[in-house]
Amino acid sequence: MLNGRENAGDSYLMLVDGKGRYSLWPADAGVPFGCSVVLSTDRRREGLEAMWSHWPSMKSVTLRKVGDPAV
Fold first, then answer.
1. pLDDT tens, 26-71?
2. Under a CB-based contact definition with an 8 Å cutoff, are residues 47 and 40 in contact?
3. Which H or E run includes 52?
4. Closest CA relative to residue 3, chosen from 57, 53, 43, 54
C-alpha cells in the first residue's frame, strides 16, 4: 500500500554522508555532494527500515562517545 508521499514506480536511495548520518532520498533527485549510496529500493518502507537498522541513533558519528549504547 502506498502512502501520500509515494507513487508506484518511485525509487529511493539510502544515503550516508561523511559524518555517518543516513537519509532516504528520491533516486531521480541525484546524489548530493559528499554522500554515498548504501541501498537502492523501489519501496520507501524498505528504505526507511534499512536506514533505521543502520543508524539507530540520530547522533552523527563525530558526536558519539565510546560506551554509548547507540555506537
1. 999 889 999 999 888 888 888 888 877 877 666 655 555 555 555 4
2. no
3. helix 44-54
4. 43
Question: Grid coordinates representing 32?
Answer: 548530493
Q: Which three cell numbers stand for residue 22?
A: 543516513
Amino acid letter at 37? V
**Angle in degrees, CA 71, 17, 39, rounded to 5:** 90
Cell numbers placing 37: 549510496
The amino acid present at 5, given as its one-letter code, is: R
- Cα atoms found within 13 Å of the Cα of residue 27, Cβ hemisphere only: 15
**pLDDT given at position 71:** 44
